[in-house]
Amino acid sequence: MTLKLKNMGKEQEDIQQILTAQSQQLKKLHDIVLQSIEDQNVLVDHILHPSAEKTTVGQRISDQVARFGGSWTFILAFSVILFVWIAYNSLVPAKSQFDPYPFILMNLVLSTIAALQAPIIMMSQNRQEEKDRINAENDYMVNLKAELEVRSLHQKVDLLLEEQIKTLFEIQARQVDMLNKLDEKIDTLLNQ
């Protein structure tokens, strides 16, 4: 009877060891998850809260000129001005015309506007290109984060598999040991 109690105590110890090992596996996985979250917080913070853009007065003006110069409001207003200019200088008496046909003054004004507007728009486009580059870097960081997540998942799965295989081998070894003891007990009972 005492041998039976000792064996039961041994089996309970074995079960307790298995449960402890599985608890340690879960703790390792929990630690890996926490480390992964901490690593990613820096990346997410950088993407969600980019540093404030500092612009000069000239840059703000170029952005506003480009925004207005590329709008329907500008196109319609400029078309109305040109139409009124041409209509006025074509329909009023020659003495009152300030820019008679072939509208040389109008061509000078149009050329000056184009000469000034083009570099201003190019400055704004350069700034937009810089913003696009920063967005591309952020996209790269997000992709890198996803890749790190996949690697972290692989590590977790590998760890789980490794620990489970180890636990299964230990359980199998204990089961074989228990079967051998049972076999011995059966042999002793049969030989009596």
Indicate the topology.
Blueprint: H1 2-48, H2 57-69, H3 72-91, H4 104-191
**Number of H/I helices:** 4
What is the string of SSEs from the N terminus onward? HHHH
Class from helix and strand fractions:
mainly alpha
What is the CA-CA span between the terminal residues?
A: 18 Å
How would you sum up the global shape? rod-shaped
Low-confidence stretches: none
Radius of gyration: 41 Å
Tell me the domain tally.
1
Biggest sheet details: none
Mean pLDDT: 83
Strand content: under 5%
Q: What is the β-strand count?
A: 0
How much helix, percentage-wise, in residues? over 70%
Describe the structure.
The protein is mainly alpha-helical. It has one domain (2-191). 88% of the residues lie in helices and 0% in strands. It has helices at 2-48, 57-69, 72-91, 104-191. Helix 2 (57-69) packs across helix 4. The longest helix is centred in the last third of the chain and has 88 residues, at 104-191. It is rod-shaped.
Descriptive labels:
single chain; 192 residues; 4 helices; 88% helix
Short description, anyone?
The chain has helices at residues 2-48, 57-69, 72-91, 104-191.
